[in-house]
C-alpha cells in the first residue's frame, strides 16, 4: 500500500480573480503616477518659474543665503507636517493647469513664512538680544513671544529683498517707532555702541 499523500492541486485563477488583480495593478499604477508627478515637479524650485510672475522671486531667492539654508520653497512657504506638504504637492496640479492656460491662480497650501518656518531645525533662533552688527538692542524672543510680532513684520525681504512691495531685510526706524515713539531720542534704549551717549547732540 502506497504511503504517498497526494497534495491538493491549486485551483487555476478564475477570470473574475484575474480581472480583480489586473484592476488593482492598474489603480495602484495610476496612484503612483498621480503622486509622482507633483512630487517631482515640486522637488525643483525652478518649477515655480513656469509662472512668469515667480521668476523675480526665484532669482532673488537664488542670490540670498536662503537658497543654501532652505533648498526648496516649501521649507518656508508650507506649514510643517507631512500632510501639509502633500496637500501642497498635490495642489500643484492646479499650478500646472494654470501655467498651461494662462490662468492666475494662487497656490493652495502655500503660506507666507511664519515664526515656525523661521525656527525650523538649524535655522533662526530667538535667543538673540542684539542685531548682527551688535549695535542695536533687539530682544527677538520678547518681540516674537510677548509682543506677538512675526519675523516677516521686521524682515519681510529676508529671502526676497526688495522684490515688488516686499521690502528689505533690515527694518526701518519708522517701523520701530510705531511702538517705541517715546524712546525716539533716548539713544541708550536702542543702541549699545554708536550714539549710546545721550549727551551727544543727535535726534531722530
Largest beta-sheet characterization: none
Q: CA-to-CA gap between the ends?
A: 113 Å
Q: Assign the structural class, choosing from mainly alpha, mainly beta, alpha/beta, alpha+beta, or little secondary structure.
A: mainly alpha
Q: Into which percent range does the helicity of residues fall?
A: 40-55%
> What CATH architecture would you give?
Orthogonal Bundle
Tally of alpha and pi helices: 10
Strand tally: 0
Unreliable spans: none
- Outline: elongated
Which radius of gyration do the C-alpha atoms yield?
28 Å
Give the topology string: H per helix, E per strand.
Answer: HHHHHHHHHH
CATH fold-level label? Multiheme cytochrome fold
Q: How much β-strand is present in the residues?
A: under 5%
* Assembly state (oligomeric): single chain
Total discrete domains: 1
Average predicted confidence as pLDDT: 80
CATH class: Mainly Alpha
Give a description of the structure.
This protein has one domain: Multiheme cytochrome fold, CATH 1.10.3820. Helix 1 (15-42) crosses helix 5. It is elongated. With 204 residues, the protein is mainly alpha-helical. Helices cover 45% and strands 0% of the residues. The mean pLDDT is 80. The protein is built from 10 helices and no strands.
Amino acid at each position: 500500500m502506497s504511503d504517498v499523500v497526494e497534495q491538493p492541486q491549486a485551483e487555476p485563477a478564475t477570470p473574475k480573480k484575474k480581472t480583480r488583480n489586473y484592476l488593482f495593478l492598474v489603480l495602484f499604477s495610476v496612484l503612483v503616477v498621480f503622486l509622482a508627478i507633483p512630487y517631482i515637479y515640486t522637488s525643483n524650485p525652478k518649477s515655480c518659474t513656469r509662472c512668469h510672475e515667480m521668476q523675480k522671486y526665484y532669482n532673488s531667492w537664488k542670490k540670498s543665503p536662503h537658497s543654501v539654508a532652505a533648498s526648496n520653497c516649501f521649507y518656508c512657504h508650507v506649514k510643517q507636517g507631512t500632510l501639509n506638504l502633500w496637500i501642497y504637492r498635490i495642489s500643484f496640479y492646479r499650478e500646472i493647469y494654470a501655467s498651461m492656460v494662462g490662468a492666475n491662480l494662487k497656490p493652495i497650501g502655500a503660506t507666507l513664512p511664519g515664526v515656525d518656518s523661521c525656527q525650523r531645525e538649524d535655522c533662526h533662533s530667538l535667543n538673540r538680544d542684539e542685531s548682527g552688527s551688535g549695535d542695536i538692542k533687539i530682544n527677538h524672543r520678547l518681540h516674537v513671544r510677548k509682543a506677538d510680532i512675526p519675523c516677516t513684520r521686521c524682515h519681510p525681504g529676508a529671502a526676497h529683498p526688495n522684490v515688488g512691495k516686499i521690502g528689505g531685510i533690515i527694518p526701518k526706524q519708522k517701523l520701530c517707532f510705531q511702538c517705541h515713539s517715546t524712546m525716539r531720542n533716548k539713544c541708550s534704549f536702542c543702541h549699545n555702541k554708536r550714539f549710546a551717549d545721550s549727551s551727544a547732540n543727535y535726534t531722530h
